[in-house]
Amino acid sequence: MSNSDSRDIELIKDPGLPAHVHRRTDTDPVAAKRAERQVAILFGLSTLGTLLLIYSFIFIPIMGDTNLHQFGVGMGMAIALFCIGAGAIHWAKTLMPDDEVVAHRHEFRSDEQDRDDFVKTVKEGAASAGLGRRPLIKRTLGAALGLSGLTPLLLLRDLGPLPGDDLKKTNWKAGTRLVTDPGDRPIRPEDLEIGAVAQTQPEFPEGKERHLEDIAKDAVLLIRMRPEEFNLDSERLSWTHEGIIAFSKICSHMGCAVALYEQTTKHLLCPCHQSTFDVTRAAKVIFGPAARPLPQLAITVDEEGFLIAQAPFTEPVGPSFWGRLT
Amino acid sequence: MKRLSRLRRHRAAGPLLLIFALFTIGTTFQVASAVNQEKADVQSRSAVIEEGKQLFLKGCSSCHGLNAEGQDIAPSLIGVGAASVDFQVGTGRMPMADMSQQAMRKPPVYSPDEVHALATYVASLAPGPAVPGDELLNYERDGSVAEGGQLFRTNCAMCHNFAGQGGALTQGKYAPTVMGVEPKHIYEAMITGPQAMPVFSDKTLTPEEKLSIIKWIKSAETEPQLGGVALGRLGPVTEGLLVWTLGIGLLIGVAVWLAAKAR
Amino acid sequence: MTARERVAGNVAGYVDDRTGAAKWMKKNLQKVFPDHWSFLLGEICLYSFIILLLSGTFLTFWFDPSMREVVYEGSYEPLQGVKMSAAYASALEISFEVRGGLLMRQIHHWAALIFMVGIVVHLMRVYFTGAFRKPREFNWIIGVGLLTLGIVEGFLGYSLPDDLLSGTGIRIAEAIIQAIPVVGSYLSYFAFGGAFPGLAFIPRIYIVHVLILPGIFLALITVHLMLVWYQKHTQFPGPGRTEKNVVGYPLMPVYMAKAGGFFFIFFGVTAFLGAVASINPIWLYGPYNPGQISAGSQLDWYMGWLDGLVRMAPPLETYLFGYTISWNILIPGLILPGIMFTGLALYPFIESWMTGDKREHHLLDRPRNAPNRTAIGAMALTFTLVSLINGGNDIIATHFDLTINQMMWFARIGIIVLPPLAFIITKRICLSLQRADRELVLHGRETGRLVRMPNGEFVEVHEPISPEKAWLLTSHEQIAPLELPEVDEAGVRRPAALRNKIRNRLSRAHAVAVPKATETERRELEGHH
Fold first, then answer.
1. Contact C249 A101 (CB under 8 A)
2. Could you give the C-alpha distances from A110 to A106, A116, A123, C107, C517, in angstroms and in order?
3. How confident is the model at residue C207 (pLDDT cuts 50, 70, 90)?
4. Does residue A115 lie within any of the structural domains?
5. Domain encompassing residue A273
6. Which residues of A are less than 8 Å from B201 in CB distance?
7. Which residues numbered 69-128 in C keep a CB inside 8 Å of some CB on A?
8. pLDDT the model gives residue A6
9. Residues C86, C6: one domain?
10. Interchain CB contact of A305 with B (< 8 Å)
């Protein structure tokens, strides 16, 4: 237990509870009266706070040139509550008795007799239920409970549809026009200067509504630079058009929108976890936790000169999942 | 004389003297470093270009080259247009004070007329974006605050933060705050794409949409701090900092007071 | 008897006739609570919970947890005509149409932040003083459960308004769910009712946030408090305080006044914060749109450390027979937090396994007297702090002229190097403090008065410390390390040999201490003076 061994080491002793020290308010009635007044003042301040709250609530309009309504209601509430508390505590500290009381701790452990009685009761109860002697009941009970325990899981099946290959498909198909987000205007290559970016989405046919679920997969970022600045293999190069390159805007890490384009370095930065992608090398990850480059959308122009997708994305967009590559 | 020597020994004499000295130095410095605003004469365009060229040779050519052709340390200015110059020099970014990651906004070194001369000179080198005129910049009339907010959040917030307070880019670069910037400069930044900022072409972000963005920025600037002190409009980081300092500090203070024995 | 006393007596009698309440009321009104400010930290959590219930109920009267699209027609001009979800629009209505609404929203959110701060600070107090030891292990586990559920509850709560910032957080949560091997995409589609963001998520988390989790909280907090009540609160060592008593003040009237007063003060402080400091300005964030993002997007602080871990994770993904396993998401998002919280919950058992100490403890440890435990705690805090700092690395970078790349590398290296460093330094500091205590007991307090002896020598006068202080500095226990056998009497290696060896080593590390001063030593020294 302690570091005493065979030598007789005497430890320092407990001097016991120190003598009670009286407060000023205990011995001096003037001090006690003063404390009482202080408590009363605090409670009085609280009422003023409530009045401020009521006044601000009724007479100061919510929207205006200032934040006065909210400030008045809030400060009124704060003062009202704070002063009640401060008053109560000051009252307890100065006027209520502060003699220390000693209470004893009882051992929690039940005595042996109670423990034995408990065990006996449980055993007798179990024996009278007869589970031990009736294995057929036990087994069928187990099967019934177990199977019925599965039903909640089954009932939750309609929480949502099965994903199927939903995660692997977007609204981009061969020939889909790129249109501005927002605005839905088709884009020509001449519309973009060197160093420009554009937020785009696939053109939806007349009558089809665009939902947030579509934006969450379809968002595409267009970037234009000088064609010589690309560092791509011939296939990826063929997916660009006159120095314009298109990437999925949905981060391959955890799905935030990646549109932070640094014109000088040709890097894309995702502000959520700082994954950095090199646009000249098909959005290769050069820093941060993203494990895959952003999917590139192959683009070209149609007969009217507007930018269109050559084909759907060749891989699922957005964050990874188990069956992503299957 | 006794009174003076008594005052000299007053407790507040030292601090007051210090404050007085600081005040004197401060105001003297302000006055001495104020840029002299000379009234510019009305000049013909070629004279303006010539003035601009002279200013350029004196203050810009050491980095940008004698013919603005650019070098390793500074890009070519041929084709950047008057708008670029008006933005960079008008916001004080150029001349660049130190060769760090990016040029910082600071008090402009050149007067508005000098900026105009520089811009005209650079514009004369090759065609480029022009300085937007007042008629074009009438965002109050032509812009929509609500649309501007949506456009800001789609095109600008990822760098400049939801309230335009600015944000981090890689390797020490940053998108500065857009608060307190002249509408003209905001417009020019969008069309010229200064430094790391990309260009927002007029066809993909129409002039009217740009004005909406400016209108939203101005509205956010003048909006009263609804809800109380905005803590920088930076989001949960400053909010968390407040609870861990003022919040729990106040509460622990109260707890210590509560448990302490009264005197 | 006065009239008032008569009425009160009648009421009490009425209740007692039916419940027998007088006996246990009497006992409980006299219950003794020890007085120390650090014992009020748990109350901070309790009071925040109550305020969250009150302010939250207020908000539910106006909030519409629906994701169907509406067009805003309220009084906040910059959003007029903008399409948004009904949830977001109703949150705007609370902020700008309902009087006191914005105040209540802010009180609710500030109280939530303080709730989590309170839990962490209370946890630190309980941990560093060893209050989790027998018989309070269950209470510790309940506390860790409250911490975990609190984090989830807070996250769900601020996601309800469906604004750009919290919607981004949900997107990230969805990515974590999706990354779970085999079942991830199914779980995600079930949780969201289909593709992200869908229409089902906000109404579902609403019920979790206002009904299921508060219900669990109420149950857990009740058990937590009942255990404290029944087992009696621990107390700091000191004169007159033993393992078998509680020294303090009775519930009525002192504690009722003080605790009740603290509640009002706390509510007042939260109202003050709600009045003067803006929090979660959803009208500036705008409605959630998966194609939008803000620079400096962060989670609330109690989840910021998770984000920090995700940010610093190496870009690891493996492909197994064509299947993708995203370690860069699973490790920081699920595996590491799982290990941390499990370790935290099991710590009382780990420590008692290490020390072999199975006795009850009602006296607290001064942290310096448990150097190993304190150092482990410092290590855990350092780990959490480094990840928390990394969670805000972009905002720190722009404000302190650093780069996010530097911050990231600082975090990646720091999270491995700094915690062990913190362990070593903290343990050393604790031992130094123990040494200082020992010096104080043996040699007394240095008064700073110099006295010249007759033979010319200068000595500093040392004043002996009071017997109360001496007791305080030496009353702690110094447990001897375990010496479990690795071989039995016949010299045969036991099956538990390796386990025993590890336990011996750990308990030895745990038992490192400066021997405390004894009366014998004091008398020996006095003889020399």
1. yes
2. 10, 10, 18, 46, 37
3. very high
4. no
5. 168-309
6. 191-193, 196, 198
7. 75-76, 96-97, 99-100, 102-103, 106-107
8. 47
9. no
10. no
Considering only CB atoms, which chain C residues are within 8 Å of A97?
254
User: Does residue A140 fall inside a structural domain?
Assistant: no
Check CB contact under 8 Å for A323 and C295: no
Q: Which residue segments constitute the domains of chain B, with CATH numbers given?
A: 45-125 (1.10.760.10), 139-222 (1.10.760.10)
pTM (2 d.p.)? 0.91
C372 lies in some domain: no
Query: Which pair of tokens denotes residue C391?
Result: 């969670």
Any CB–CB contact under 8 A between C75 and chain B?
no
| Cβ separation A23–B225 shorter than 8 A | no
Interface confidence, given as ipTM, is 0.91
Cα dihedral across residues A126, A128, A132, A135: positive or negative: negative
Assess if residue C375 is contained within a domain: no
> A225 lies in a domain?
yes
Residues C37 and C26 in one domain: no
In whole angstroms, give the CA distance from residue A299 to residue C320.
32
Residues of A in contact with C200 (CB under 8 A): 159-160
Which domain does C16 fall in, by range? 1-30
**Looking at beta carbons, which residues of chain C come within 8 Å of B175?**
295
Report the C-alpha gap between C53 and A318 in whole angstroms.
Answer: 38
> Which pLDDT tens digit goes with each residue over A92-151?
999 988 888 898 888 888 889 989 999 999 989 888 887 778 888 889 999 999 999 999
Instruction: State whether A79 and A193 are in the same domain.
Output: no
The greatest distance separating any two alpha carbons of chain B, rounded to the nearest whole angstrom, comes to: 85
CB proximity C186 to A under 8 Å? yes
> CATH code at A305?
2.102.10.10
**CATH number (domain holding residue C52):** 1.20.810.10
In chain B, which residues have their Cβ closer than 8 Å to the Cβ of C121?
A: 248, 252
Beta carbons of B167 and C39 less than 8 Å apart: no
Q: Do A89 and B257 touch (CB under 8 A)?
A: yes
pLDDT in tens, chain B (263 residues): 678 878 888 888 888 889 999 888 888 777 665 544 444 445 578 888 999 999 999 988 888 988 888 888 888 899 889 999 999 999 999 888 777 778 888 899 899 999 999 999 999 998 888 999 888 888 888 889 999 999 999 999 999 999 999 999 999 899 999 999 999 999 999 999 998 999 999 988 999 999 999 999 999 999 888 888 888 888 899 999 999 999 999 999 999 999 888 87
Name the CA dihedral angle for C397, C399, C402, C407, rounded to a multiple of 10 degrees: -30
Composition of chain C by helix, strand, coil, percent to 5: 65, 10, 25
> Residue B258: which of C80, C258, C397 has the nearest Cβ?
C258
Residues A288 and A176 in one domain: yes
CB A299 within 8 A of CB A307: yes
Chain A / chain B CB contacts < 8 angstroms: 103
Tally of domains within chain A: 2
Q: Say if CB A274 and CB A288 are below 8 A apart.
A: yes
pLDDT in tens, C29-85: 888 888 899 999 999 999 999 999 999 999 999 999 999 999 999 999 999 999 999
Tell me: do A58 and A176 sit in the same domain.
Answer: no
C49 and C25 within one domain = no
What one-character-per-residue DSSP string does C62-102 give? T------EEE--SS-GGGTT-EEEHHHHHHHHHHHTSTTHH
Q: Are residues C284 and C140 in the same domain?
A: yes
- The pLDDT assigned to A191 comes to 92
Query: Minimal Cα–Cα distance from A163 to chain B, Å?
Result: 28
CB B106 within 8 A of CB B93: yes
Name the E strands within A167-270: 178-180, 197-202, 220-224, 244-248, 260-262, 267-269
Residue A104 lies in a domain: no
- Among C40, C276, C401, whose Cβ lies nearest the Cβ of B228? C276
Across the interface, whether the CB atoms of C467 and A15 are under 8 A apart is answered yes
Contact C284 B228 (CB under 8 A): no
Return d(Cα C135, Cα B224) in angstroms, integer: 55
Chain A environment of C174 (Cβ under 8 Å): 255, 319
The answer to whether residues C84 and C26 belong to one domain is no
Number of domains in chain C: 3
Residues C5 and C76 in one domain: no
